[in-house]
Amino acid sequence: MGSYKCDSCTRCFNSWHACTQHMSVLDHWQWPYDCETCNARFATERSAEQHMEAKDYWSYPYDCETCNDSFRFEDDRDDHQEEEGHYKHLYCSDCDRYFQNPNNLAQHMRSRIHQGTSIKCPFCQASFVTASGVSHHLETSSCPKAKNLSSSAIHRAIRQRDPNGVITERLLEWHEGNTINSTWNPSSAYNGHGYECYICHREFSTPRALEQHIRSPVHQAPLYHCPNKTGKCGGKRFPTLAALFNHFESEYE
């Protein structure tokens, strides 16, 4: 048996010359390197690459999930989608907008653009997208027709209607809200650099900003909790009803 074997069939030859003649006549050469686009085949990888470079026959099999760009390599496609926010699950088709993370997209989908403003304040009839929006409106005494309402007044009313503490904290001792002495002047809290909170010592640039901070629930003990104490939040606690509603809206949408 000859020592020179055909690339394709079982025939063997005593000389390389005879073997090459056979393979040329019968087209039995092995061409292991294919063009990615056409049917051309090559004996070496370098020859195939030169052909595809000259003809621009490189294939781009990895498509972006949302735009028309294609890529030669999966990593390049993934980098593009990460940089541009082009992952399909981060795309709002109605608005043709992309978002950097699922939370941003979820907030967009909950906005008035998609949800409308179907929830109204029972006093002034102002429209809101969510229950948390209405609650914040009332708890901050922002309603022009319910100025007597505040987070303290609302909490007191809910406690009376929730004797078993389904959503309200069962506090041993409770004092209403962040009450501020009527004679207190936030300008007196200036320390030479800014207006300083006497609780957390945070500084503010104006007396009004300090007063808003003091009146906010930031230093208030939690008054409400999620009733789903066995769920993933473990009965998370909140200082305001609006914060509790926001939790419901984000966790159970």
From TrEMBL:
InterPro entries (alphabetical): Znf_C2H2_jaz (IPR022755), Znf_C2H2_sf (IPR036236), Znf_C2H2_type (IPR013087)
A molecular function GO annotation: zinc ion binding
GO cellular component, one term: nucleus
Pfam families given in the database record: zf-C2H2_jaz (PF12171), zf-met (PF12874)
Domain C2H2-type: 90-119, 195-219
Cited SUPFAM superfamilies: beta-beta-alpha zinc fingers
Annotated keywords: Metal-binding, Repeat, Zinc, Zinc-finger
UniProt-recorded name of the protein: C2H2-type domain-containing protein
Organism: Aureobasidium melanogenum (Aureobasidium pullulans var. melanogenum)
